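Dear colleagues,

As part of the handover before I leave the project, I'm documenting each prediction I ran so the next person doesn't have to rerun anything. This entry is a single chain, and its sequence is reproduced below.
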Amino acid sequence: MTTTLVTGANKGLGLETTRRLIAAGHTVHAGMRDLDTGDAARELGALPVQLDVTDQDSVDKAIASLPGLDVLVNNAAVAGPSWTLDDLDVEAMRIAYETNVFGIVRVTQAALPLLRRSANPVIVNVASSLGFPRALLDPADDAYHGLLVPYASSKGAVIALTVQYAKNLPEMRINASDPGYTATDLNQHNGHQTVTEGTDATVALALLGPDGPTGEFHNRLGRIDY
């Protein structure tokens, strides 16, 4: 049985990822800041675990509660408080990075000892085309129309850290996924994709075998060339 941890798993993309991985035969530990919000995950058969990616003590306790770990899906993210340059400041950047970037590092570093014991360790970092310069510069891409700075730059950092982790840990499959413009709380449900479409890449990468790719960036159609 494959043991999986999904962060930010109480709703949206995290909850749908949880559902699909359980359907694929995984035992999923659903990380969430507030266990009182975990009813939907429990109904799917997930095992809710209190996990605030911005809190090192919470991260350490959550990882220590796991019996083992084969797959880590770093899904937890926030849009941040700034949507225009008029309300942009360093604190807005810090809030976005605290969850979207530092949170991934906290959880991944804490989880590495367990992942190293797995026969098929896999990490999926949920990034975004909003962090990909080629998409941001293409008027035909949904990402082009997103002007918010903290979220976009934090997701760019997620793509870079994914590549660097993959280079440092060649024995693991470590990739980044792009959900695309998906209707979630993050965008007030304005996206044109369903959460199932938005988790296609994440789920496919989570199900990789030992011979799968690593250090890559994928959307639901496949690999995105850097």
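The two ends are 34 Å apart (CA to CA). The chain has a mean pLDDT of 94.

All the best with the project,
I.
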